[in-house]
Amino acid sequence: MKILKLLILILIISVVIIQFIPNDKPEVVLANENDLIYNNQLPENISVMLKESCYDCHSNETVYPWYSHVAPVSWLVVKDIRDGRKELNFSFWESQSKMDKAKHLDNIIDEVLDENMPMPIYTIMHANAKLTKEERQLLADWAERHAESLFE
Fold this sequence. Notes:
Elements: H1 2-18, H2 36-39, H3 44-53, H4 55-58, H5 73-87, H6 98-113, H7 120-125, H8 133-149
């Protein structure tokens, strides 16, 4: 019994100590002049899907939930946001070439239809980010049309 109490105490102390390890969160910028939604007339349902399911990790407009301030979960959140922004950042959309935009749109189609995005771990805490099969198809269809419109 003493060993169990000691282990619990060590665990509690460890959790408290790790809260002091710095974890710089990616900056939040709400005014992004090169943003996809800001610069394009997207259908309302597509804008809502992108904002709810993609923008926290794939834009500079991240909304940090309460648990993103608690280590060690905060480390995973920061990693996912950094990786997401590196792969695709909608806040820099208009500063990309047409070819890069087309590649991103093609990747969106693949990732959404293969149910890789939004990440299942994200939708656990963000139920409104979960996409139905129909929403996935709508988003893929939009991405395909938008890619085609780039070269018209």
